[in-house]
Amino acid sequence: MVKKVTVFDESWLMRARANNPPAASWLHDLIDGLDTTGGIYLGSLRLWFDRYPLNSNKQKRALKTRLESFNNEDHLGCVNELAWWAFMQRIGLKAVPLPTSSVPLPDFKVKVPAEFFVEVSTLNLSKSDKSKFERGKAAELDHMETVRRILRKVTNEKQRQISYADDQKQACVLVLFDYSLWSTFGTKFFRFLADYLLGKEQRSEGLPCELSALAYVERKVIDGRIAISRDRSAIYYNPNAKDRLPVGTFAALNQFWCQMVTTEPRWEDNWVWL
Description:
Blueprint: H1 10-18, H2 26-32, H3 37-51, H4 57-67, H5 72-90, E1 94-97, E2 108-112, E3 116-123, H6 127-134, H7 143-157, H8 159-167, E4 171-178, H9 189-198, E5 213-217, E6 219-222, E7 225-229, E8 234-237, E9 254-257, E10 261-263, E11 271-273
Helix pairs in contact: 2-3
């Protein structure tokens, strides 16, 4: 009988407590609130992990390693993939994770309501802002620098995954979870990004035609529960895409297309609880 792969067991909790995590670590608040909000958080991740449709224990163990990592970027990147899978289920999309391969593949293949690929990524705190904080200096609010970092994700870091979808002649969505400095301050950056990508002014640098849409996402943990902000998240449908994603596919988010035509989310709450 094949042994079931589990996450965040007692052995892991003992190691986490002994780790003495710094305040900036995701473990810090978790350990402090393990009997309350931290326990709720781990409970959600355990449930998602158990339900996540992987084909083998080898894949489960690889996911477990990333999810249990004490490293912020590894852990958060994995949580974001699981959160987006849970979000797609929440809004009625049927998706399956793609297996790891020697060829970079997108994270998901969506089958309903339409067939397309999804790649999930994270925009972490920039090295520049991190360096300034470590030296006790302030960082300036610079939306254009965030836009440049997003475009580098699109055109460089995720180009091979996007190209894979293009080779299959199917639409592709790049989902970016924002953990940069200003993502928690409610600056409505998603509107600035909409104006840059889809405003009337023609830009020399924008979304490549191989990318069907870009989703900008702010995810929060509130009292241990994981949610996506519908007020400050948005999807931008690329009007120049070779393979179009139908407008309305992600109606739970702010939607922008063709010179900033927009619709607000069809959702009653400010948060999509996962």
